[in-house]
Design goal:
single chain, five-stranded mixed sheet, binds zinc ion
Length: about 130
């Protein structure tokens, strides 16, 4: 059984809501904020491709819009186990707690746990503004 059972369940549920008529990919994300609240998101594509939003971004923006700005875990689900894209990694870095875990999962139940440092070395973070 997954150590991340609730996150996985939410990510799979939200993947089912994906609006992906172009890529046909169903992506689900679930995040856990500092206080243990969970938020889910799916990819929302647009016929004007620049209007497309990733599942991770939807979940993070839902949390931020509810006043939850510190993220403990991000769980990402795709059938094939795709990692988060570069833009999502940057958005995660804005709200990540220092030891935030990113769990990349697939339809077989495989889970790979990464740190943000693994995924985005030399991230441009809010701390950069303190160095001026
Ligand atoms: Zn993305």
């Amino acid at each position: 059984m997954s150590d991340y059972k609730k996150l996985r369940e939410l990510a799979l549920k939200t993947a089912g809501f994906a609006h992906s008529p172009y890529s046909k990919a169903k992506v689900g994300a679930a995040i856990e904020t500092e206080d243990g609240t969970l938020f889910g998101g799916c990819n929302v594509e647009n016929s004007s491709f620049g209007g497309t939003t990733c599942a991770e971004q939807v979940a993070i923006f839902k949390a931020v819009s509810e006043g939850k700005k510190r993220i403990k875990r991000v769980y990402v689900y795709t059938e094939a186990g795709w990692p988060p894209c570069g833009i999502c990694r940057q958005i995660m870095s804005e709200f990540a707690l220092p030891q935030m875990e990113v769990i990349i999962s697939d339809s077989q139940g495989n889970e790979s746990v990464k740190s943000l440092q693994d995924l985005l070395p030399l991230a441009f973070t809010p701390d950069e503004y303190n160095k001026r």
